[in-house]
């Protein structure tokens, strides 16, 4: 992996593939890292360059602050792109990675050639969801590993929990390596994020929303409604919150259509 230094922290990223299409940046979600994209990269690198980044406090990247705001994480992504000399990219973000992609679109729209929200939403946390984030911060203090195990298990459909048991255990093991303070920094950053509906609605480039019909985290019908407001291409998946694992084949087909 390559690296940059941002605000004293080492940020890791990986570049693979080449082609005439606009480079594609893949951003993982909360408690994940860039390794989740390995099967997707294998499929896409034959036709375009793919850039995968470990967001602050995740994977090999170091934490930067007590709160990893979406703006801070978007600035990190921007710094990686500047270091690579990229003037235009397409973005695909899973869950929290989608929030970071939207923040990048808000602040640096000129570099965004297209955006994909995968199991993500342009809407801010509800009051109840913010309370859950606060309780999660407290639980991480008391028992980090219990939180990690519960949080990751809750992402999947019931069928996937059985079919992908080994893969889910790997996710838990990797997430368990994260420092508690970095888990909390991301939780608070997500809790405090803003509403991006107008940012997405007004964007004139290619925009795609991918949603799981059995997503335990994001209500499918609500995402479908939001999609109607924002005018995105909409692709329903059959399973839960982690479409890159649960619906890999269908997801990869869609990814080939990103400009």
UniProtKB/TrEMBL annotation:
Annotated AB hydrolase-1 domain residues: 23-246
Gene3D superfamilies reported for this sequence: alpha/beta hydrolase (3.40.50.1820)
GO cellular component, one term: membrane
The keyword Heme appears for this protein: no
Tagged with keyword Protein transport: no
Protein name: Alpha/beta hydrolase
Gene Ontology MF terms: hydrolase activity
Entry keyword set: Hydrolase
């Amino acid at each position: 992996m390559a690296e940059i230094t941002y605000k004293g922290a080492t940020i890791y990223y990986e570049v693979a593939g080449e082609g005439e299409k606009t480079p594609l940046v893949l951003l993982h979600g909360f408690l994940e890292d860039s390794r989740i994209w390995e099967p997707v990269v294998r499929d896409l690198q034959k036709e375009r360059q793919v850039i995968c980044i470990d967001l602050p406090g995740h994977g090999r990247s170091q934490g930067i602050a007590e709160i990893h705001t979406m703006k801070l994480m978007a600035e990190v992504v921007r710094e990686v792109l500047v270091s690579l000399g990229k003037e235009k990219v397409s973005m695909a973000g899973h869950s929290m990675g989608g929030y970071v992609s939207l923040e990048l679109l808000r602040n640096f729209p000129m570099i965004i050639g297209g955006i994909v929200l995968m199991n993500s939403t342009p809407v801010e946390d509800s009051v109840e969801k913010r309370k859950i984030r606060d309780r999660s911060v407290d639980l991480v203090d008391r028992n980090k590993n219990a939180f990690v195990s519960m949080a990751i298990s809750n992402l999947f459909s019931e069928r996937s929990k059985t079919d992908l048991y080994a893969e889910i255990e790997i996710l838990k093991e990797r997430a368990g390596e994260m420092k508690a303070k970095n888990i909390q920094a991301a939780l608070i950053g997500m809790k405090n994020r803003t509403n991006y509906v107008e940012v997405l609605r007004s964007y004139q480039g290619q925009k795609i929303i991918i949603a799981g019909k059995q997503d335990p985290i994001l209500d499918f019908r609500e995402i479908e409604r939001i999609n109607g407001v924002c005018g995105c291409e909409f692709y329903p998946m059959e399973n839960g919150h982690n479409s890159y694992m649960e619906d890999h084949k269908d997801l990869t087909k869609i990814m080939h259509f990103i400009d």
